[in-house]
C-alpha cells in the first residue's frame, strides 16, 4: 500500500491550494481517509476526514474553509483549502486504515506567508 500526497506549496494569506492523495494497493472508496497536519514544534493533528460512506468531518480550525472530497475513479482524495492563514502552515499527511493497519502518505508542505 502506498499513499502519494501532492499539491503543497507556498501561498499568500487568503489564497487557496488543493492537496491530492492517490493510493495504490488499497481502495479509498471502501475505507475512511483523513488529512492530518503537523506544524513545526507541534503535534500532528487531524484536519479532515471522509468516511467510506462519504460523511465528512473537520477540525474546528478549518471548518468552512477546507473541503475533503473523493474521486473513486481516480482512487484519490482531495483537500481543497481556501482562505488560507499563516497558522495553516504545516506538513500535511494523508492517512487511511484497513482493519488494524494504518497507512500514511509522505508529507506535503504548505507554507502560508506574505
- Rg over CA atoms, rounded to whole Å, is 13 Å
Largest sheet: 7 strands, mixed
Shape: globular
Low-confidence stretches: none
Strands, count: 11
Quaternary form: single chain
* Mean pLDDT metric: 96
Count of individual helical segments: 0
Q: Structural class of the helices, strands and pairings? A: mainly beta
Secondary-structure element sequence?
Answer: EEEEEEEEEEE
Overview in brief:
The protein is mostly beta strands and 114 residues long.
Secondary structure elements and pairings:
Elements: E1 2-6, E2 9-11, E3 17-24, E4 33-38, E5 45-50, E6 56-58, E7 66-71, E8 76-81, E9 90-98, E10 101-104, E11 108-112
Task: Give short descriptive properties of this protein.
mainly beta; seven-stranded mixed beta sheet; four-stranded antiparallel beta sheet; 0% helix
Provide a descriptive summary of the structure in words:
The protein has 114 residues and is mainly beta. The chain is 0% helix and 54% strand. Strands 2, 4, 5, 6, 9, 10 and 11 form a seven-stranded mixed sheet that branches. Strands 1-3-8-7 form a four-stranded antiparallel sheet, with no helix packed on it. A hairpin with a 2-residue loop joins strand 9 (90-98) and strand 10 (101-104).
Amino acid at each position: 500500500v502506498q499513499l502519494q500526497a501532492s499539491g503543497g506549496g507556498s501561498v499568500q494569506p487568503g489564497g487557496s491550494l488543493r492537496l491530492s492523495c492517490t493510493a495504490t494497493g488499497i481502495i479509498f472508496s471502501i475505507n475512511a481517509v483523513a488529512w492530518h497536519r503537523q506544524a513545526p514544534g507541534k503535534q500532528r493533528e487531524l484536519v479532515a476526514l471522509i468516511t467510506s460512506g462519504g460523511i465528512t468531518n473537520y477540525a474546528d480550525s478549518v471548518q468552512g474553509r477546507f473541503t475533503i472530497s473523493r474521486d473513486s475513479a481516480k482512487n484519490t482524495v482531495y483537500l481543497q483549502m481556501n482562505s488560507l492563514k499563516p497558522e495553516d502552515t504545516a506538513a500535511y499527511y494523508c492517512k487511511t486504515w484497513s482493519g488494524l493497519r494504518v497507512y500514511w502518505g509522505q508529507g506535503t508542505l504548505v507554507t502560508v506567508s506574505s
